[in-house]
TrEMBL record:
The gene is Snx11. This is SNX11 protein. It is a peripheral membrane protein. It is found in: Cytoplasm; Endomembrane system; Endosome. Residues 11-128 form the PX domain. SUPFAM superfamilies: PX domain. Pfam families: PX. One of its GO terms (biological process) is vesicle organization. The keyword Protein transport applies. It comes from Sapayoa aenigma (broad-billed sapayoa). InterPro entries: PX_dom, PX_dom_sf, SNX10/11. Keywords: Cytoplasm, Endosome, Lipid-binding, Membrane, Protein transport, Transport. Belongs to the sorting nexin family.
Length: 165
């Protein structure tokens, strides 16, 4: 009998890119980051996605993951440091790197991958309250529907095309 071919390696690439200041010059300005995800893993609903999230949303996500993961340690986020020596650009770049390292570790963890909040955070543009509602079954869509709806809406693709040289 012939040996069966080896299963393809499951690979998930996640990138945190393109920090942008939103509401620049106003008291409620903040920086958000593009999260680009490309995967062949069955764990994910959409094979490619692209969303924008801010640091505060990462803080929420980590807290939720910790709640659900029990004893499984959740990776650390880059510090909240309001005191920073150096330029704003340096701070944002350090934070971007830290957020990317956080997500790279999270998506490799089977326990954390089982949390629907993570999937909605990475593959839909739902706000935090809407993610909570969806996970609790109070949204208008299931978790899978919300992700597929966002994937079909083309938002994820358009941004990716724009950023190509």
């Amino acid at each position: 009998s012939m040996a069966s071919p080896p299963a393809p390696q499951e690979l998930t690439t996640v990138r945190v890119q393109d920090p942008r200041v939103q509401n620049e010059g106003s008291w409620n300005s903040y920086v958000d980051y593009k999260i680009f995800l490309h995967t062949n893993s069955k764990a994910f609903t959409a094979k490619t996605s692209c969303v924008r999230r801010r640091y505060r949303e990462f803080v929420w996500l980590r807290r939720q993951l910790q709640k659900n993961a029990g004893l499984v340690p959740v990776p650390e986020l880059p510090g909240k440091s309001s005191f920073f020596v150096g330029s704003t650009d340096e701070f944002i770049e350090k934070r971007r790197q830290g957020l990317q390292q956080f997500l790279e570790k999270v998506v490799q963890n089977v326990v954390l991958l089982s949390d629907s909040r993570l999937h909605l955070f990475l593959q839909s543009q739902l706000s935090v309250p809407d993610i909570e509602a969806c996970v609790q079954g109070q949204g208008t869509q299931t978790v899978t529907e919300a992700i597929l709806h966002y994937a079909m809406s083309n938002c994820g693709w358009v941004q990716e095309e724009e950023s190509r040289p």
